[in-house]
What does this fold into?
Amino acid sequence: MNRLFKNNLAPFTPTTTDSKPKVERPLIILPTYNEADNIAEILKAIESLPHQISILVVDDSSPDETAKIVSNYPSFNKT
It folds into this structure.
């Protein structure tokens, strides 16, 4: 998010009352194309991190069924 400041774009980070940036849940955007051989392992590695992380997989119509593997992944939540 950016805020206009004195005719310049200055980065703006929402803060809490104690002025520390607050991140509710980080989001990883994962672009894929023909990653059927790797995608399950990648998702597993991200899920094993010590934080709760949302993952958005963006598949570019892979002919190798990458999207199908993601949609059948155990923790897949279509929201």
In short: The longest helix spans residues 39-47. Helices lie at 39-47, 66-71.
